[in-house]
Amino acid sequence: MNIADTPVTGLDLTGFEEVGPGLWQDGAGLLLSVHFFPLVPDLPAPLHDSERLRAGAAQGVAEHGGGLIEAEFGALDGVPAVWQLVKMPLGSRPGQAFLASWTVPRDRSSVVVKVQAAEGAVTGMREALILAEVGPEEYFRPHPYGARGGLPYHVGDLERWDARFPDHPLTRVRAALRRVAPTVTLDEEFKGLPGFGEARRRGWFRRRSA
Q: pTM for the complete prediction?
């Protein structure tokens, strides 16, 4: 059975309750969602061109006012995929939202599994404590993927601090997607499609609706 009319056929939803089609929430407000896009993936480069993909993605996030914290490569259910962890300003109030996602790009479609959470009334405590500990010269760094603008890149977002701040939304989204990702299973037809940037043929969604 496919979930929310996507090629996702299974994932571990322990601790989450369904709040809409393809959308779940845990008791602390963390949102987990799955998406299918029947379009050429909105990625700046194929997965094998990792340097260009990272640079393009980082600059794209920066131009929307946010920051790409990290982009790594791996697989969901054996299919090549890209992990991205992004921070965005909330806009309507102080604080940031954090979004972690795995994108599985095929030639003319993609699947995204995403987890997101926002800071609450108390904001900036993680950053302030780490800044005081390491000092400004060590805290702020040039963006590793060369992005210009957007939210500043700093060591306070690195995973090595997560154990110190287990309730921070950045820690929680990173941990939740790392737990859920290995449990994702995908439709076999979708898995058999050409990867992003490979020779095109009819997509999963067209075969499904034929």
A: 0.91
